[in-house]
Design brief:
The protein has 234 residues and is α/β, with parallel strands linked by helices. 49% of the residues lie in helices and 11% in strands. It contains 8 helices and 5 strands. The protein has a 5-stranded mixed sheet, sandwiched between helices. Strand 3, helix 5 and strand 4 form a beta-alpha-beta unit. Helix 2 packs across helix 3 and helix 5 runs parallel beside helix 6.
Amino acid sequence: MTIPGPRERSGRQAPFSLRQLALCFGLIAALICGAGLTVRVMAAAAADHPLSALAAGAALFVAATAVLRRRHRLRQAAGALSLPEPVGEYADVPASAPTVTAPSPVPAYESMSPDEFEEAVAELCKRDGCSDVQVTGGAGDLGADVVATAPDGRRVVIQCKRYSPDHKVGSQDLQRFGGTCFAVHGAHTATVVTTSGFTQPGAEYAAQCGIGCFGAEELTAWAVGTGPSPWDAE
């Protein structure tokens, strides 16, 4: 006799049972009859005692509403717990106000005295790394108001002209300075710094002699750090 293997036994289908089918239909019919009987009893009770039925209906409505609200809150709480905290570039980081750097104030060079102006130019030289800075202006200065040593070792000689805007530095001023800045003071770089400007003949003479011309615009740019120093402008 041949014994069926596992595959053959697992491939067989369960035989149709009429008894189980009848039992299933009977259970369904019982449930339907029970529901109908319950509705009839409730209808009869409502007809005999309308106020009691109304109160029971209201209580049932309130209970159902409370259950629905509770389920809604539980769902919201579960959703909040399941959401991960944002990290990295998606995190809700409060934006900080941008940092604005105020520009350096421009000193009122025009309102200074000639001596104060020379001291202010000397301070700019110290700020930009010059050493041995001296204010030599005065009687017998031979055109050198500020002398210093640049960071690269060159000797810096500056003549300061604190003039009003309508009083420009002319060729005579530059000729006097040009006759002493190199020969007497041994300048490697010589510059005339003024709060005004230069006449055309004066600028031409300075260019021929290798003298730097720092007018009001160049002085302001040097002071606020947006322009070069006299020894770097060359």
